[in-house]
């Protein structure tokens, strides 16, 4: 469809994006015209107070919710034009989600949780087993593949979630306050993990955070206030990513 | 999404809620077991009766006086005599005509009394009327022998009391003899033959019957009027014609009973029985289905967050619907299978009950015969069709029950589902 070379297509592009929630007869604007461009391979953080609209923006970028007006493009694909089924396929193939509360399926083991996105796309059992195992090893959980989430620590659960997000080799990872429930030591480990993934696979990573220390370890910080972008700045501390 | 993965996940989800799954499945198991047991035992009953009637051969008509057993309260006084025998013998296609006398009798055997039927008939007719009837011991008395009898198996081998040996004297009180003042007559004969076990045919239980010669019965009854006449037609195809001719000739004076006719009326009764009992089972299965809807609905609500996760990691609405439907279907598969096993066991219990209450050992001609009913149980019939039905129907029901909850799951909003606590 798009004749431009892949590198020139932004991973995420939002143009005049608005979202209005209507409760009864009252309108509550959550996003009031967001313009944002995220290049491929960026490690971006979105900051803002609660109620600023950052979660709404994240849900729209994540193809989980639809905008009221404006345009949202993922890898040059206009999401508005996609059916529910196509959106699901896009989430499965291009996106990986990581949440503050981990959102693992409690009755499944670590490896079964990691396998879930691959089951949806009919990957044969042997292949998805080995892929999932490889991914769990990469996040340092090779010995805990058969543990259920309630047998794992918070940091370990989040690493399972990271493995689940990565196993499909997505082009964009969306993390909604991924370290919100973790102590500072584990927080650093998780951020290291993100940096490593970003470097190694060139995966675009978009992290919503309250934590300024995390934001400072990213390349690109976007601050949202009252449904608008207040600040959009690139940091130049490239050398800090190499620590892995 | 692979079909096998869908069912593996469904299985894991059911295992995760063991108690609830077992209870839901139990509803299906019981409902389908009841239906199965009812259908299998009533078709077993039907088959049993059919076999009983067919044993005699469909080419024998029974002519009886219009009054009596088949038409209580009838004022018709026509009585069958030698004139009728002559008329019937002259009909085309008729091969044999056997008039008979039939009386109730009680046999004194040591301290206990045994109920039996005394039938007076040309004894050479026995192998013709009853296909495959054989003699266990002794020989059938010759025509004209007025002191000997062929004795049914259950008379010689009573459930209680002493067994009767060959050439022993059988003493009895014969009731319903109109020529006697009290209506009953004391009578004794020698058992010169003991018949092999046979069962019920031509609506009387052979095993409970004492066959005496026609001459002996004439002497006993002191009456020229018979209880009935058996008419043997040359082949089954002519039975209807002969029956029509006789019915036209006699009008309402006599009853002509053909095995085929009885068969169809019994089949219609057992058919109605099946429908009636089956609908009771259907109600219980319906209740079980509502149970599935309920369980599934609660399960969807409880797993709202899980559904949100599935949506986020890229499961399509149809896949989510499929996952929940396969849980419901799996419930039906397990319920259907266990229902089949339980229904199989249950049908044998029920078969015994039906046998006891419906056909018993009672023959149409004679008095109730005790003892014999215990041996005649109904063997439930599990046809291939019934087994397939038993396995497939619960799955269809359960899947249908899962439709709405599964649809709800597939339509959930991902964002709100993920926020669900």
What does it look like?
The complex is a heterodimer of chains A (244) and B (421). Chain A has 244 residues and is α/β, with parallel strands linked by helices. Chain A has one domain: Rossmann fold (3-Layer(aba) Sandwich), CATH 3.40.50.300. Chain A contains seven helices and ten strands. In chain A, strands 6-7-8-3-9-10 form a six-stranded mixed sheet, with helices on both faces. A four-stranded antiparallel sheet of chain A has the order 2-1-4-5, with helices on one face. In chain A, strand 7, helix 6 and strand 8 form a beta-alpha-beta unit. In chain A, helix 3 crosses helix 4 and helix 4 packs across helix 5. Chain A is globular. Chain B has 421 residues and is α+β, with helices and mostly antiparallel strands. Chain B folds into two domains: 203 residues, no CATH class; 199 residues, no CATH class. Chain B contains twelve helices and twelve strands. Chain B has a six-stranded mixed beta barrel. In chain B, helix 2 crosses helix 10. Chain B is elongated, with a radius of gyration of 31 Å. Chain B starts with a helix and ends with a helix. At the A-B interface, helix 2, strand 6 and helix 3 of A face helix 1, helix 9, helix 10 and helix 12 of B.
């Amino acid at each position: 469809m798009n004749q431009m070379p892949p590198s020139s297509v932004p991973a995420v592009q939002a143009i005049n994006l608005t979202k209005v929630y209507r409760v009864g007869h009252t309108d509550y604007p959550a996003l009031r015209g967001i313009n944002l461009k995220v290049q491929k391979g960026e490690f971006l953080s979105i900051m803002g107070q609660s109620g600023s609209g950052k979660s709404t923006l994240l849900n729209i970028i994540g193809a989980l919710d639809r905008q009221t007006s404006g345009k949202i493009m993922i890898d040059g694909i206009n999401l508005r034009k996609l059916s529910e089924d196509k959106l699901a396929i896009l989430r499965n193939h291009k996106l990986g989600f990581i949440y503050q509360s981990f959102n693992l399926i409690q009755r499944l083991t670590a490896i079964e949780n990691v396998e879930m996105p691959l089951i949806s796309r009919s990957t044969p059992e042997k292949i998805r087993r080995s892929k999932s195992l490889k991914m769990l090893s990469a996040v340092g959980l090779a010995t805990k593949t058969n543990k259920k989430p309630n047998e794992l620590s918070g940091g370990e659960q989040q690493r399972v979630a990271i493995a689940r997000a990565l196993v499909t080799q997505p082009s964009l990872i969306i993390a909604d306050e991924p370290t919100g429930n973790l102590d500072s030591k584990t927080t650093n480990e998780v951020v290291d993990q993100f940096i490593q993934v970003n470097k190694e696979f060139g995966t675009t990573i978009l992290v919503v955070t309250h934590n300024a220390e995390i934001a400072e370890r990213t390349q690109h910080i976007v601050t949202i206030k009252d449904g608008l972008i207040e600040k959009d700045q690139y940091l130049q501390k490239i050398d800090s990513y190499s620590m892995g | 999404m692979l079909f096998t993965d869908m069912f593996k996940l469904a299985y894991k989800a059911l295992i995760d809620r063991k108690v609830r799954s077992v209870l839901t499945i139990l509803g299906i198991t019981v409902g389908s077991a009841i239906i199965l047991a009812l259908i299998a035992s009533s078709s077993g009953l039907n088959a049993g009766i059919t076999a009983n009637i067919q044993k005699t051969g469909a080419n024998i008509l029974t002519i009886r006086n219009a009054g009596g057993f088949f038409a209580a309260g009838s004022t018709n006084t026509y009585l069958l005599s030698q004139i009728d025998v002559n008329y019937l013998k002259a009909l085309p296609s008729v091969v044999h005509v056997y008039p008979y006398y039939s009386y109730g009798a009680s046999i004194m055997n040591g301290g206990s009394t045994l109920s039996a039927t005394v039938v007076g008939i040309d004894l050479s007719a026995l192998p013709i009327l009853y296909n495959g009837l054989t003699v266990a011991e002794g020989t059938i008395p010759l025509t004209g022998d007025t002191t000997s009898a062929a004795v049914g198996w259950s008379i010689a081998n009573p459930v209680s009391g002493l067994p009767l040996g060959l050439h022993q004297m059988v003493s009895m009180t014969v009731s319903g003899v109109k020529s006697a003042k009290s209506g009953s007559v004391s009578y004794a004969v020698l058992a010169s033959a003991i018949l092999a076990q046979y069962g019920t045919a031509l609506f009387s239980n052979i095993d409970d019957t004492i066959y005496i010669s026609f001459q002996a019965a004439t002497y006993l009854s002191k009456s020229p009027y018979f209880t009935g006449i058996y008419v043997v037609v040359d082949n089954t195809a002519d039975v209807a014609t002969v029956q029509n001719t006789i019915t036209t000739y006699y009008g309402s004076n006599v009853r002509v009973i053909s095995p085929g006719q009885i068969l169809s009326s019994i089949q219609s009764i057992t058919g109605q029985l099946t429908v009636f009992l089956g609908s009771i089972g259907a109600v219980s299965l319906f209740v079980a289905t509502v149970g599935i809807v309920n369980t599934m609905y609660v399960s969807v609500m409880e797993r709202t967050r899980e559904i949100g996760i599935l949506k986020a990691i890229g499961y399509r609405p149809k896949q989510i619907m499929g996952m929940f439907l396969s849980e419901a279907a799996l419930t039906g598969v397990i319920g259907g299978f266990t229902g089949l096993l339980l229904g199989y066991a249950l049908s044998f219990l029920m078969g015994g009950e039906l046998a006891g209450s419906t056909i018993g050992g009672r023959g149409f001609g004679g008095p109730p015969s005790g003892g014999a009913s215990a041996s005649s149980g109904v063997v439930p019939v599990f046809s291939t069709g019934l087994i397939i039905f038993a396995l497939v129907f619960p799955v269809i029901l359960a899947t249908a029950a899962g439709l709405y909850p599964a649809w709800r799951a597939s339509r959930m909003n991902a964002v709100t589902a993920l926020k669900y606590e």
